Amino acid sequence: MSAEFSKKKLFIETLGCAMNVRDSEHIIAELDDEYETTNQIGEADLILINTCSVRERPVHKLFSEVGGFEKVKKPGAKIGVCGCTASHLGSDVFKRAPYVDFVLGARNVSKIKTAVKTPKFVSVDINHDESEYAFGEFRTSPYKSYVNIMIGCDKKCTYCIVPHTRGDELSIPKDIILNEIKKATNNGAKEIFLLGQNVNNYGKRFSSSNGQKIDFSDLLNLISQIDGVERIRFTSPHPLHMDDKFLREFSLNPKICKSMHMPLQSGSTAILKAMKRGYTKEWFLDRASKLRALCPDVSISTDIIVGFPGESEADFEDTMDVLEKVRFEQVFSFKYSTRPLTPAATMPNQIDDSIAGARLTRLQSRHNEILDEIVASKIGQIYDVYFEELRADGMIAGRTDNNFLVQAKGSEELLGKFAKVQITQPRRMVLNGQII
Ligand code: 5AD
Ligand code: SF4
Q1: Distance CA 263, CA 98 (A)
Q2: For the residues of 114-153, what is the DSSP string, one character each?
Q3: What is the CA(163)–ligand 2 centre distance, in A?
Q4: Is 82 part of any known ligand binding site?
Q5: Topology of 8-123 in CATH?
Q6: What CATH number does domain 139-257 carry, 3.30.70.20, 3.40.50.10860, 3.30.750.210, 3.40.1110.10?
Q7: CATH architecture group of domain 382-435
Q8: Where is the signal peptide (predicted)?
């Protein structure tokens, strides 16, 4: 019997951001000696949920999901709760879901083998240092590789739970990052997706004091020189650290995809101050217009929170004003959600849910109108598309350099390749086109 044949089965569900996706890849790699993945939960020997806690809804989802796992799992199968919610709930997870076998916080992924073997194991130390840990290799996509460049976050945005789930910020040494990227490109990946909570603050602190002096712009430049790297993306940069050097490297380096995430959060300087974001409305507008001037093809995406404590109509109008001025290509917008351990949770003037809901609807409908105008202007345009996904009915999908999702008729042999596509029917979420 081959070793492969005798492997146990692992079912893993990932909620939340790209960092969680990468953590799940690390978990799969660490367990690879003993487990292979399955998407059939009923045949799994180990069921894992890798959680997000940035808003309240995914936390509820966690408990409804594990309740469902308990009902359908085969006898003897173990259930583990990993990730950000695991970090802040710790052993409280057992109180709400006693059938859970272990709890493993974000930043503790390297302990997964011990967790699986130890009854009621809990490890949620947010200062655990995995910044130099050599994780095994596993990648969900052969075409695009996620690469962590830092862990944790030193910002203390007053609404955000992440500093309590992922701990202080530590940059990963550049040689580890460059080697990982070389391995990924040797395996055929052409696109590298760099991950961190504050990528453009890279290089501020390392865990070993080997005197590296490097910032994010330098790192991008080094990565762009690696053979086989054709596209570099990253998330998330912070508007505060968008200095001229960074905007220049972004604009002039042809390997860097012209799509920038600029999380605004609020357009009101007073609310930004209460959020401890460190920039003003004017700074944000200045950086966005500088970026558009340097880089006419850039698409700018953003995150916006409405209904932060104390947000007045006038504050919200400031957010709408930034929306009009920047004309973001993509907006991820959320109603403020009270999170445990955060300063905003106890601020006075919490906003009524119906007011926040109405603001969210207004923001989203106005953005839809803007987006309709933006995508209408794409008819007839020709883009280089990197195809990554086979879809139903003989269609394939991929992304333009500036991050629009494009769909065209085509088959498997185009996966992992670039082709020119002329846009025929643009929609909000996907631009339909023809390969030319
Ligand atoms: N409520 C609503 N949205 C939040 N985010 C982070 N914390 C909260 C919260 N408490 C949003 C921010 C962040 C994105 C990942 O999630 O917009 O950029
Ligand atoms: Fe949270 Fe702010 Fe850190 Fe982003 S920068 S993870 S919003 S604390």
Answers
A1: 38
A2: HHHHSTTEEE--TT---TT--PPP--S-SSEEEEE-EES-
A3: 7
A4: no
A5: Rossmann fold (3.40.50)
A6: 3.30.750.210
A7: Beta Barrel (2.40)
A8: none
Tell me which residues of the chain have a pLDDT lower than 70.
Answer: 1-5, 209-211
Axis crossing angle, helix 216-224 with helix 174-186, rounded to the nearest 10:
30
Query: Is residue 282 exposed (0-12), middle (13-18) or buried (19+ Cβ within 10 Å)?
Result: exposed
52 is in an annotated binding site: yes
From ligand 2's centre to the CA of 263, what distance in Å?
A: 10
Fold equal for 8-123 and 264-376: no
Which top CATH class is 264-376?
alpha beta
pLDDT of residue 60: 87
Identify the residues whose C-beta falls under 6 Å from ligand 2: 153, 155, 157, 160, 162-163, 197-198, 238
For residue 41, the one-letter residue type is I
Q: What is the reported pLDDT for 5? A: 65
pTM for this model (two decimals): 0.95
378 phi, psi to nearest 5 deg? -90, -10
Q: What is the pLDDT of residue 291?
A: 98
Q: Specify the pLDDT at position 211.
A: 59
What pLDDT is attached to residue 281?
A: 98
Position 1 scores a pLDDT of: 46
- The vertex-168 CA angle with 162 and 174, nearest 5°, equals 110
Question: Domain-by-domain residue ranges, the chain?
Answer: 8-123, 139-257, 264-376, 382-435
